[in-house]
Write a structure and sequence with these properties.
24 helices, OB fold (Dihydrolipoamide Acetyltransferase, E2P), single chain, D-amino Acid Aminotransferase, Chain A, domain 1, 5 domains, binds 2-(butylsulfanyl)adenosine
Amino acid sequence: MRESHGVTRQQPLTAARRRAEQLRDVIRQHDYRYYVVDRPTISDTAYDRLFEELARLEAAYPELITPDSPTQRVAGAPLPAFPAIEHLAPMLSLESVTDADDVRRFDERIHASVRGRTVRYVLEPKFDGLSLEVVYRDGVLLRASTRGDGERGEGVTENVKTIRSVPLRLRGNSVPRLLAVRGEAIMRLDDFRALNERLERDGQPPFANPRNAAAGSIRQLDPRITAQRRLDVFFYDILHMERGPRLADDMRLLQALPAWGLHASPNTRVCSSVDKVVQYHREMERRRDSLEYEIDGIVLKVNDLDLRARLQMTARHPRWALAFKFAPREQETTIEDIVVQVGRSGVLTPVAVLRPVQIGGVTVTRATLHNRDEIARKDLRVGDVVRVIRAGDVIPEIVEHVPARRAHRHRPYIMPARCPECHTSIVQERPFDHCPNGLACPAQLKRTIHHFGSRDALDIRGLGPETVDALVSEGLVRSVADLFTLTHDDLMQVERFADVSATNLLKAIDRARQTPLWRFLHALGIPSVGTRTARDLAEHFGTLDRIQSADEAELMAVPGIGPTVARDVAAFFRRAVNRRVIESCRRRGVRMSRTSVTRRGPLAGKTVVFTGGLESMTREDAEERARARGALTARSVSAETDLVVAGTDPGSKYAKACALGVRVIDEGQFQRLIGAHG
Ligand code: IVH
């Protein structure tokens, strides 16, 4: 038995190699079932166990690590820029039409050139994402690039390697020597919504639609960020193949893709008449809203690959394929009014009230105008006829006004000088307007209370927006602290409550009295403090008192906290009203505990200490990443420590860890441990 940084080598190398190979195989099988065919056969926990065993084995026997091991989905260090990559074959674009008559003409053209032969078409959804080329050499992922100008694109290999549905190694035994496949990177709608919520919580601008989110995530110089964004790829074409199986038609090609472990569309079909094409288009358009991702049309491609070769290309498009797009989810309507909503933090958001209009089967009556600068940029006025777009379930957006339909009486919009809810003079902080009245403004109060009980805050079930509205309007709740003195009788006065719902809400409120400090901090709704910052603060300071009395310099000493957040936090706690509310919560039994445990992730609930210098990231960064995977990070080693990550020249902490028998790993092992769980 040998020791390698405290990790034991308990078996002969050959046995370890065998086990590692076995584990990789099994893990790849499960990845394939989960990400490609969508039929997982084991639980997440069982999967994690296998994964951890492999990671441990590789940590003890680094010589066994292979570049295509499932543990190697490591998000590498940031790139200075994307290298230019020439595609193995040009990535063409498609001619696109929206009219069935154009599809019929396309079909006639093809029939004219094949003289009497039957033509079959492969039909596929047209994914609304970012087109990629992914190259495999001897079955191992070699590189990935964006479409760029069609000839050369940007090398985004490191980023694409973090996408779980992209295999690092192909399956099966007819793997070509060289294979370039084309696919579309997309972000699913629920991941898109979650990402935008997170961005907004962290005070960053959200993405306008899932396509931009996917493209923005792939074109990220820091692969660690891509790794946090959940992306998926649908493969649909072979751009180039050397020494692979002979494929006679596209359908066979499309079957080859999943056989190699590449995720392809489950909605592909073959047909041999243009009527069937139109029917498929109609059917997919109907299903569009129930899919988990965005499609913007269908693609029809001649199935026979020889025939394709004969049909060749026009200047830019292949003659054998056509994009048949859905009608744009865009309509014209009129801005009937512009109203202003007051958000939790007091930000005023202008919203256009629209003459109701059907867009893609949904009645749209409102569209956000974001802020005064947006209104000015688009020059939107009450009375204007505007073009409104609705993408997926994304909030409707006004694209532009139709200048020809503007009348003289339409006056430029002027943002109110006072808060529409409490009439306090507003404060401008370009591009936003603010109501500075804080919790004394009823709109802010309602939103604050709702946020206070939301899932990532105190998680009080049953405290939805309508309930909050009723509680505030009835005068039962004037601050978040009032939640803790609500009685059954109080609730029974409110129309929406019955005996059971009142009891349940009171129970939920009572449970929330015991809370991890970070949840309470997040619940307070301090501007620019999202869950992550709340955790950092909680962990760094340990108690609310210490956070409350910290000045800006002390706050900025917390890794990851910059001047803006420090200023916002300090300003929040300086306000007497905020301090009073916190004090009341305490008097009413709220107790905050220092730590909390993230239940998921490879480091869930483990206390990790870093010592020595790290090569690929800063200490703060490493701690942050460990926390993001469920770890608690500490500065000193004790019997409570589960794991020590030792960099170069580790000092006394390393010695102490060894003395206490705490597991020690090096930086590479740490990277694999965390990168693997992206
Ligand atoms: S086939 C020769 N199939 O739509 C062109 N394209 O110009 C091969 N797209 O940028 C493309 N879904 O990235 C094909 N199922 C699908 C597709 C698809 C989306 C994209 C493609 C291209 C654009 C059309």
